[in-house]
Write a structure and sequence with these properties.
The protein has about 625 residues and is mainly β. Helices cover about 5% and strands about 40% of the residues.
Amino acid sequence: MSLTKYDTVSIVLEKPFVTATVSSSTILKGDDLYIRGTATGDPPSGVAIWIFGKNYWNGAAVPMQYSGMVTETVNDDNSFEYLLESAETKNLSAGQYYVVVQHPMYNGQFDVITDAEEQWVIVKDRLNIYYNSFVVWGVGYLQGSDASEALIDGINSPYVDDTYYKLSFIVENPWIKIDSISDHHAGDLFTISGTTNLDVGTEIVIALTDSFFQVSEEKTDDFSNISSTVQVVEGINYNEWSLDIDTSDFSENNYKVQAESIEFNVSATANFSIINSSIPIPTPTPTPVKPVSKDIGAAIVSASASPDKSEYEIKEPVCIKANAELESSGDQTFPAPHSLKAYTELDNPEWHYIIKINGHGEEQVTKGKNLIISGYLLEYPSDKNEIKIEYLLEGNIPEINEISNQTLIGLSQIDSSGNIASSGPFLLQRTVYPDLPDPQYKYEKIILNNGWNFISTPKKLDPSGGNNTAGKLFGNVDSGGHSALMYNGSNGGWDAVKADTIIKPLDALWIYSNSTENQDIYLTFDSNPLQTPPSKHLSAGWNTLGYSSTKSATTRDTLIDVSEKWTKVIGWDAEEQNFEDTIISGGSGNYADSRSMLPGKGYWVWMKDEGTIASLAINSMEV
């Protein structure tokens, strides 16, 4: 028996690896670009950095003197950094550029290298025995994706122990775009907006001229041409800019808008008209459903939200984690012509994602509703590699006007024709509830808040027993000494509401409640099936209008009878004691005429011309 004492210890020998990231997936000409990453195994030769694009290779092309292969030293902490300077990028052609970071692995030598031969620089294997070389500089050179794929074919050779990591970036020319501008009436308030790839804070000059304007001539009408400077702000997919326009002093005419960056010498133009004829209500064009592709090679996806619940409220912050594990597509992990598209309906989305090659990868960050990863970055030999993508998405639940299902995160494989491949899409959806003010009407009663209330009755009241009079309805309200008032749009004056005043649909009245608690005003509707539907005449200028239904409807639909004549609607939030955001005919965003008008509420309405509006509801037909 041996008296020797011994113990054991486990030693894990990890295979060297390389990962990398670009400082930005899209750059403008003249921007610096950094490639940073990690390379383990203490490679004495460092890592090689290859960049290929249209008529471009980042190596030094000096035949007969130097092969031009670009390498970077790996630091003691396994990090490396390569800078493509602005002096270089300003001369690049616009388009996509392909990056391959090469690691020499165990033997410490690059087994695929460059060499100079007469008037060429070629890429070949170090031993010059097994790899079909290609020209990287000189007559017949490869460029772009062809060069990168030829290089990768060499590194993937069974006689080469080198490994690699793929990246890509896009070089863009600076651009400015102007969103489509619809025609307007004089007096309309609207916003001219657009997108750009210029940096946040860049100044854009917005010039607006009419068709009569000539630089060499004096103006003959009253219109003052507008010139204003706006700053670029952060957007969702691209940066944005905007300018509010008041057309009160505009005449019927054609107008030209020019948006220009003096610094980058780039501009865009658009046109619109001020007209007297009606503006048609646009009919939304449904988005065509793209067919499902039969191509294979897909992602198996899991996703979760934090906080994870079935229902959310608008503006609520949320964090989404998702994982995609690629199934092999034949000999490759993913089809190179395809792409993997992640998308969200969250506001202010920020993506943190890692493409893990055999468990290793660098975190990358981007913003926007969509995150598209090129198949070039996901295609590796399937027999030697496992590809996973980890997503972490932060954003806010979007602001909506109606209860709806919103996509927190979606993932689709997109084929070369833009169609969704058979593996998707994957969707993580949740119900979102809008942050609407407390209802003014509920279950056949009007709810008065403490303070001023701007109210209306949604249907005709029962006249028997005075159920339709102000005295019967509001006799028990403590008004704190304030009179209830109705506005007379025909003369611009105020009428005090008396006890015998008939409260009719489409009329709106202001009433003050001194009670610290909400007070219910119960309504008794007229059940006569033979009644004539109510209507109301609206004068040019400001009018008050009651909402005439127990069911909400968009402002556009509510005012369909005067669609050519109204421009603005303003509601009152009795809970907050503040006016709500103005609704504008043909407006967008917070000012969109798709916003709902609500039962029990009163509204200010501005009319360009007089008109008559009819009630949305007839008592016997509405439940």
